[in-house]
């Protein structure tokens, strides 16, 4: 495990199904507000359903933590970001749309929007700007909803 993912893993969300092997997956997400207070979210359209998430995703082997966030954010939204401070870490048991069992170890970072570069590559991801409370209610993973709540509290306290 990379040392930027090795420290405090944060709370655990979800539960493993007994007897099912889960694959460890380091992931990183960004919390990026616009001047109107809305945050970047992605609406992910699948063949049978859709879901909502924060921009971000898997840290590739050998990839630096912050590089992964910049890459994932750009691929999913078309926006370049400058990763800021770590907001929180959390773990989430999940099953992918392909039926793969994953144990995500996530880092959630505050981000600053740099530029809309129109380099979006993920056709099934749509950037949607939501108010933080609406975003919390739509997140597919409890860990992401919790991270938004922690981010809001840190901002209100002037810590971000």
The largest β sheet comes out as: 5 strands, mixed
Number of helices: 4
Taken in chain order, the helices and strands follow as HEEEEEHEEEHH
The separation of the N and C termini measures 27 Å
Q: Could you state the CATH homologous superfamily? A: Nucleoside Triphosphate Pyrophosphohydrolase
* Strand adjacency order, main sheet: 1-6-7-2-5
Describe the structure.
24% of the residues lie in helices and 40% in strands. It is of the alpha/beta class and 160 residues long. The protein has a single domain (3-156), classed as Alpha-Beta Complex (Nucleoside Triphosphate Pyrophosphohydrolase). The strands form 2 sheets. A 5-stranded mixed β-sheet has the order 1-6-7-2-5. Strands 4-3-8 form a 3-stranded antiparallel β-sheet. Residues 1-6 have low confidence and may be disordered.
Write the layout of secondary structure elements.
Blueprint lengths: L2 H4 L5 E2 L9 E9 L7 E7 L4 E4 L2 E3 L6 H13 L1 E17 L5 E16 L8 E6 L1 H7 L3 H15 L4
Parallel strand pairs: 1-6, 2-7
Antiparallel strand pairs: 2-5, 3-4, 3-8, 6-7
């Amino acid at each position: 495990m990379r040392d930027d993912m090795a420290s405090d893993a944060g709370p655990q969300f979800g539960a493993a199904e007994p007897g099912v092997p889960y694959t460890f997956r380091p992931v990183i997400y960004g919390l990026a507000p616009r001047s109107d207070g809305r945050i970047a979210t992605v609406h992910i359209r699948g063949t049978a359903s859709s879901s909502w998430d924060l921009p971000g995703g898997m840290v590739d082997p050998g990839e630096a933590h912050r590089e992964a966030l910049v890459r994932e954010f750009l691929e999913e939204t078309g926006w370049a970001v400058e990763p800021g401070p770590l907001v929180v870490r959390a773990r989430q048991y999940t099953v992918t749309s392909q039926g793969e069992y994953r144990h995500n170890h996530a880092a959630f970072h505050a981000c600053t929007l740099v530029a809309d570069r129109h380099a979006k590559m993920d056709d099934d991801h749509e950037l949607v700007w939501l108010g933080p409370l609406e975003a919390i209610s739509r997140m597919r993973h409890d860990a992401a909803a919790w991270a938004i709540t922690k981010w809001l509290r840190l901002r209100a306290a002037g810590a971000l």
